[in-house]
Amino acid sequence: MNDQAARLREKVINHEKKTRVIAVASGKGGVGKSSISLNLGLAIQELEKRVLLMDADLGMANIDILLGITPNYNLSHVLKGKCKFEEAVVQGPANISILAGTTGVDELINISSVEVSRLIEAASHMEENYDIILLDIGAGVHYSVTNFILGCDEVLVVLTPEPTAVMDAYSLIKILSTKHYMGRTKLLLNQCNSLKEANELAERMQRVIKQYLNQNVELLGMIPFDENVRKSVREQNPFLIQYPKSEAARSIKELAVKTMNGACENKSHGTKGFIYRIIGAFNRRQIS
Question: For the residues 201-225, what does the mean pLDDT come to?
């Protein structure tokens, strides 16, 4: 009887637990955002979580290049009814699920009621089959970037110590603030020469953001400069798999643990909530 009750409680908990949707974004390109998205997804999956990595960089998809794969379908094919959601998902290394996003903003601005229904159906499938959805968002502050982020439960803003990367990351956070983004914003520092450099940069960013935006942002962590990362990109194999003992691999595993430990920090709206919010954001853009 006790075993049966425990199983019933587990079913209730699993039913109520919604999929977390996390954006990985950056103010500028070239900061390693896509590589981090891929390797972070793999590291989270090692923690026995089901991960879907969605390449939402409209027109500039990188995940397939990093892996040397060519998906036959993307989300736009699902919207148009040319394939089922399951057919659009491809399996990457360590069996991680990967979905290429739509190929253009217009497809989301001019989405039809039939396509909305298909999108909601896809959201139901994601909710049922994945614990975490990682969105590799395009770089910059274009409305197609910010609208995707507005739909997510949280955003990891990737930046490097370069002054341009720092300023552009601040600009992205500022725009999200003006759009009243309600999710959690976290900093993820990449290609740092030392922990001291990372902490000093994070403190400056946090101080400026608090002073001018009256917003608190958390430092999720840092990934040190590691030549193995560049090697893995050239070899089209994630550094977590190709160089599992590297400093970058060790750091990404720590970030995965921190990401999962933060699950209770804010309530997830689930995949349907994500879909409704991004559709609403793009529709508001069309009206304005």
Answer: 94
Amino acid at 120: I
Q: pLDDT tens digits for 228-270? A: 999 999 999 999 999 999 999 999 999 999 999 876 556 788 8
- Give the span between the Cα atoms of 235 and 229, in whole angstroms: 10
198-206 long-range contacts (CB < 8 A, ≥24 apart) are: 198/222, 201/159, 201/161, 201/166, 205/159, 205/166, 205/169, 205/170
Residue 79 lies in a domain: yes
Supply the pTM of this predicted model.
Answer: 0.88
Instruction: Give the separation between CA 138 and CA 61, rounded to whole angstroms.
Output: 8
Contact 234, 202 (CB under 8 A): no
Full domain range(s) for residue 279: 18-287
Q: Which residues of 205-236 are buried (b: 16+ CB within 10 A; e: fewer)?
A: bbeebeeebeeebbbbbbbbbbebbeebbeee
- DSSP letter (8 states) at residue 92: -
What is the enclosing helix (H) or strand (E) of 22?
strand 20-26
- Per the CB < 8 A criterion, the answer to whether 148 and 279 are in contact is no
CATH code of the domain in which 214 resides: 3.40.50.300
Is the Cβ–Cβ distance between 35 and 134 less than 8 Å?
no
Query: What's the domain count of the chain?
Result: 1
Residue 198 identity? A
Q: Tell whether 1 is covered by a domain.
A: no
DSSP code of residue 228: H
**Among candidate residues 154, 137, 132, 153, the one with its CA nearest the CA of residue 47:** 132
- The C-alpha atoms of residue 109 and residue 106 are separated, in whole angstroms, by 5
Q: What does the chain come to in residues?
A: 288
In-domain check, residue 12? no
